[in-house]
């Protein structure tokens, strides 16, 4: 809890009024997003593309990946 959040909580308790419905929902959403971010690997993207690339390298047993596309070998745009 940040100092600002702690002060807000103290203020709500002192005055006997709680935060509004929207603020509670916003806080819950932020908490859920933080938990999701902590569970996700820090070295990967949300789509888990780095892990998929590592799996493809393991299947092909190569230290590189061939990316599909229309680029010709040696062609730099």
From TrEMBL:
<dbReference type="GO" id="GO:0045292">
    <property type="term" value="P:mRNA cis splicing, via spliceosome"/>
</dbReference>
<dbReference type="InterPro" id="IPR005011">
    <property type="entry name" value="SNU66/SART1"/>
</dbReference>
<comment type="similarity">
    <text>Belongs to the SNU66/SART1 family.</text>
</comment>
<dbReference type="GO" id="GO:0000481">
    <property type="term" value="P:maturation of 5S rRNA"/>
</dbReference>
<feature type="region of interest" description="Disordered">
    <location>
        <begin position="1"/>
        <end position="77"/>
    </location>
</feature>
<feature type="compositionally biased region" description="Basic and acidic residues">
    <location>
        <begin position="1"/>
        <end position="12"/>
    </location>
</feature>
<protein>
    <submittedName>
        <fullName>Uncharacterized protein</fullName>
    </submittedName>
</protein>
<dbReference type="GO" id="GO:0046540">
    <property type="term" value="C:U4/U6 x U5 tri-snRNP complex"/>
</dbReference>
<keyword id="KW-0539">Nucleus</keyword>
<dbReference type="Pfam" id="PF03343">
    <property type="entry name" value="SART-1"/>
</dbReference>
<feature type="compositionally biased region" description="Basic and acidic residues">
    <location>
        <begin position="22"/>
        <end position="37"/>
    </location>
</feature>
